[in-house]
Amino acid sequence: MYGTYLRLDVTVWASDRTVIRAARRKLTRTAQRDPAKREARKRFYRAMLEHHANAQRLVAEFRL
Q1: Which terminus of the chain faces fewer neighbouring Cβ atoms within 10 Å, N or C?
Q2: pTM score, whole prediction
Q3: Which 3 state secondary structure label does DSSP give 7?
Q4: What value does the mean pLDDT of the chain take?
Q5: Pairwise CA distance, residues 45 & 52, whole Å
Q6: Which pLDDT score is estimated for 63?
Q7: At what angle do helices 38-62 and 16-26 cross, to 10 degrees?
C-alpha cells in the first residue's frame, strides 16, 4: 500500500482531504460507487491517511 501512497503524487504537507481526493482517483469507477465495496474503500482511504501521517511525522522529526 505504501507504493500506492507514493503514486498519489501529493506533497507531504498536503491536507488529508487532498490525499483522499487523490486516492479516490486511483480507484476504478465501479469501485468508487459499489455499495458492497464500501468497507474496502474505507480501509483503503484509512491506509493512505496513515501513510500520509507517517510521512509527515518523518519529515517533521528530521526537519527535511
Answers
A1: C
A2: 0.90
A3: coil
A4: 95
A5: 10
A6: 85
A7: 130
Which three cell numbers mark 2? 505504501
Dmax (CA) of the chain: 42
Computed over its alpha carbons, how large is the radius of gyration of the chain? 13
Q: What are phi and psi of 27, to 5 degrees?
A: -85, 150
Is 9:23 a contact under the CB 8 Å cutoff?
no
Q: Where are the alpha helices (DSSP H) in 1-64?
A: 2-6, 16-26, 29-33, 38-62
How confident is residue 42, by pLDDT bands cut at 50, 70 and 90?
very high
Q: Do residues 56 and 12 make contact, with C-beta atoms less than 8 angstroms apart?
A: yes
**For residue 6, what are the CA distances in angstroms to 11, 34, 39, 64?**
10, 25, 22, 17
